[in-house]
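Changelog-adjacent note: as of this version, every example in the card shows the full chain rather than a window. The one below runs 451 residues end to end.
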Amino acid sequence: MLERFRHPLVAVALALLLTVPFLALYITHGFHLSPQPPGQNIAPGIAVLVGGFAILGAAFLLAWGAETAEKDVPTAFAIAVLAVLAVAPEYAVDALYAWQAGADPGQSAAASLAIANMTGANRILIGIGWAGIALYTIYRAKRKGDSAVEHHSGLLADRVVIDREIATEIAFLLAATAYAFFVPLGGTIGIVDTIILVGLYVAYIAIVIRGDAEASEETVGVPEYFQGYPKVPRIAVVLLLFAFSGLVIFWAVHPFANGLETLGTSLGVPEFFMIQWIAPLASESPELVVVAYLVNKARSTAGFNALISSKLNQWTLLIGTLAVVYSIAAGHIGGLPIDEKQVAEIWITAAQSLFALAILSNFEISGREAVALFVLFISQVIAEFYVIQTYTDPAQTNLSITILYVYTVVYMVLGLGLFVRHRESLRELLGRTVTNAREAVGGSGQPERAD
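Full-length structure tokens:
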């Protein structure tokens, strides 16, 4: 009898059950958090609770789908699909603000909110996601062991070693980061930016999709069970898991985020701050759950690959989407306007990305480096929150911009210093990427590996 409860399908059923309360309320009420006709309004606390459970269940289904897919497509490509689905709600939120800005050019606040939400999501992914997962990996390795973690003497000296096959993802993210510094110079996020950034992502996908279609790591549990299916049913299961989990995440994140925003506003937290930090934190939660799940299975490499892939598609497709949606809403080709505050937001986001990539350029991240990422991120958020709560415009805006520029300089100095220190590893990283690109163009299959 006990063995029945250990069957992989029981785990799938439990994950599905987590989504049921949300789906039931979503169908019957639509999760309206603003005033609605009697019987149609859902309390913010309920929205956060059932929405959070739905995201959790869908995240597990999404992770199982990606792991199962590794038998039929390259691992990097399966994880890229997972990353896109996990951050789809972030695209929807930003697209909404970009549409409002295009439909009413005089509504400058919508354009600012679109950029604030985008930069907030990107910085959360690194400051909390990359840092938190690295520290969790090191913590887990002390208890259960992990071949990806090297133990060193000293406080927070242990290191998570990243598979060198992630070189392509890091290199393309580095290229997108370098270009991001130039985006604000034109005064808008325009169609040229869309072409360049989306082009980078398309080139990346074109390379990774040519890799081997064999799972590089042994799977267990639900993915192992589904991988035992014949090819056609297996592919059908993967598509079903991707479609269902993607839709649930897409639907659930908005009431979940809106519920958090409503609760935060009731506690006196400014709306702009909620849009930049709380809403993105909610929309980033599915991928963080997925990555924590992978790390817990000692698949640290796949976990960091998912984090880097998420950052890459947010830093390319998400930014590119803004100009397209704005142009459609405006009825002509145009660009999302960038004010002085948002210029500073984009630059600090690019600088943080540069620093994080400099850390990973030698294919490892230590506990100390992870703490540095988190402390720099959280201290900037706290400092800006203090300014928002203490000062009024124009002093508030001027002080906020000053804080952003100071942290931008700190990130840049630290990042460039690490790149110089890791210059040999950086050359290897770029060399591997060039080799992978040549192999993809040549169609010869598995890329050659540098020694």
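Structural remarks: Residues 270 and 389 are 8 Å apart (CA to CA).
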